[in-house]
Specification:
Number of helices: 2
Strand order of the largest sheet: 1-3-4-6-5
Helix content: 10-25%
Radius of gyration: 16 Å
Order of helices and strands: EEEEHEEHE
Low-confidence stretches: 113-132
Number of strands: 7
Length: 135
């Protein structure tokens, strides 16, 4: 299995299961311009199965627009669509995640208040920028 490295910004807030067993998000990255002069945007769907990473990092540190570096492997998944048809998709399974642009930093810089947890005293200190969170 080949390891891939992908850097990009989240297209939307991560979707995290209630028990933190699974987190799904999409990263977008600008890869130059096409012949017509338009930005070429590449997107990849990412999935994390690491409960600790999902609960302690992804749920607290990532939001729409945040930048992250993902190291992982692509897997093909098959699923049944709502219309009953069988579909296939590629997902990047997260092995390592480095947050480059924290959600809290984005809120501080824009003057917004953080809406993470109502009881902020129970929240552990987050690592500094550039620190890697292992899966």
């Amino acid at each position: 299995m080949q390891t891939m490295v992908f850097t990009g910004r989240l297209a939307a807030d991560p979707q995290i299961s209630p028990d933190f067993a699974k987190a799904v998000f999409r990263l977008l990255e600008k890869r130059g311009v096409d012949a017509g002069g338009k930005d070429r945007i590449v997107g990849v769907n990412c999935v994390s199965w690491a409960k600790g990473l999902n609960e302690k990092v992804i749920a607290r540190a990532l939001a729409k627009g945040c930048e992250a570096l993902i190291v992982g492997a692509f897997v093909d998944t098959a699923y049944t669509a709502r219309d009953g048809s069988e579909r296939a998709a590629k997902e990047l399974v997260v092995n390592r995640l480095t947050v480059l642009d924290w959600a809290a930093d984005r809120a501080e810089n824009s003057g917004e208040s953080e809406t993470a947890a109502p009881d902020e005293t129970a929240e552990p200190a987050r690592p500094r920028k550039g620190r890697r969170a292992a899966a």
